[in-house]
């Protein structure tokens, strides 16, 4: 069995959210909650978020302690909000604002991993002290990507890592985390251990934290997992090189290395850490190329990528807008509506299906028709993109959108479109105000309305892709 020499062994760890298996749903929900909260006293912000988390599906019967743990884990690991203990004020972070605005969970996890380092303000001061005393300075995503990227040219083929290999050859070895070991040495070590058929320590916490980072890298679309091995995602070359060439680092801990210091001194810069992880997040940095992301290739079936690329000009005049989640969602729904009406034999009504300019501020995105008659459908599109399938079936309506829904009643529709690497799921919600009054959907007033619904109440609708006959 391969073992790290004791003088080089230091097991890294970090906050592990209790909701890790449902992390995408939780973070999307929390981002939408946090963006509705203005800066306020720490305790008041905590209470608002606690109340919202209590309403997250499956949480109503959970103990208050569990909900508070969720809240602190969200704050510590993901920096969704910034709690200033000196001023006594909490404010929502840019990470929450960007995620709520874009619904781009893939981009969110890239942001998260781009800033994630050891030491960082997401862990307790005693452990930060241990990391500093051992000289640790380590950005795991950057290093792992560098190992896998270098391996392609170095050994002449693609290299995949297991969680055990990552923990034993990278994560828990000070030659990497302290000394920044040359990545080719790590590639040699892994390849040589495979030739020797070495086994690894793979128990519980020994590999769990390295495994977390690999899993988050999959959610960020940087890696793909095949049969327990994690490989570079070749479609993300630009993002991968951005990580590898990154020189950014949180340097506020540097002054403590080689010196004696107190937990109080460490805690004094905690707020700066959360400001750092929320800073310099360009809207365009790591924006997901949706055309590529949602493409699938099944044997004997045209890929979604091919269909969209060949037909997109029939749906949206400005093809460049397809990189924006909201615009692509509206584009796909516009195509869906045209195809739905065409399938009803009413090609003569297709010209009535139009995208409404945002500047009109009418409270919906698309004007369509039923198809059996020219009766109008006023459609608000809510689109989410994620690596895994989203199960939280919620969306936010602005005050203007809720007012439009209340005015238009049965003619108002919300098309909830959820895109991930393999599925395109569409739920059609007609007359949300009426459904709320009939207790068929849930609504919480929050700068408009936070709406959620049970999938048992609504069957998903097949998303139709616009393929106008020649």
Description:
There is one protein chain. With 470 residues, the protein is of the alpha+beta class. Helix content is 42%, strand content 13%. It contains 19 helices and 14 strands. The protein has helices at residues 23-34, 42-54, 64-78, 94-102, 105-115, 125-133, 140-154, 163-171, 174-177, 183-195, 204-219, 237-244, 263-267, 270-277, 290-293, 304-315, 325-343, 399-408, 432-437, and strands spanning 40-41, 81-84, 89-92, 223-226, 229-232, 354-355, 366-369, 376-385, 394-397, 412-419, 424-430, 442-445, 449-452, 461-462. Strands 6-7-8-10-11-14 form a 6-stranded mixed beta sheet. The chain has a 3-stranded antiparallel beta sheet with strand order 1-3-2. Strand 7 and strand 8 form a beta hairpin. Helix 7 packs across helix 10 and helix 7 (140-154) packs across helix 12 (237-244). The longest helix has 19 residues, at 325-343. The termini are far apart. Residues 295-323 have low confidence and may be disordered.
How would you describe this structure in keywords?
alpha+beta, six-stranded mixed beta sheet, 470 residues, globular, single chain, three-stranded antiparallel beta sheet, 14 strands
Distance between the first and last residues' Cα: 65 Å
Total strands: the figure is 14
Radius of gyration: 24 Å
Spatial shape: globular
Strand content: 5-15%
Q: Helix content range of the residues, please? A: 40-55%
Q: Low-confidence runs (pLDDT<50, min 5 residues)?
A: 295-323
Q: Main beta sheet: strand number and arrangement?
A: 6 strands, mixed
Structural class: alpha+beta
**Alpha plus pi helix count:** 19
Strand line-up of the largest beta sheet: 6-7-8-10-11-14
Q: What is the averaged pLDDT score?
A: 87
